[in-house]
Amino acid sequence: MEKVTExxxxxxxxxxxxxxxxxxxxxxxxxxxxxxxKTVELDQQAVGRLSRMDALQNQxxxxxxxxxxxxxxxxxxxxxARIAEDEYGYCTDCGEALGLDRLRADPTLPRCLSCTxx
Length: 118
Fold this sequence. Notes:
Molecular chaperone DnaK; Four Helix Bundle (Hemerythrin (Met), subunit A); Znf_DskA_TraR; single chain
């Protein structure tokens, strides 16, 4: 198992920028995806129940994607708060360093592997 070392300021800035970039991407996705959540109207030109079922399914998928984005946005906000409090990069449960490789894979991680596994 690889030894986990503390990150330097440059690495924290890099990860903070990745978090901010992802937040901007989520905002763009929200702007594009908002139409799919509107009330499904009955289209008299469409053919029968299947068209309405497709529209309802598309609406449900759009709502699920919006919920996923909201959850990711909360995780990003929590990670940015940990950066501001100088607690970023450490497990929120045990205080161990999380490791740069893990944080590069997912900069929102709050917990080490041991605490995640329980």
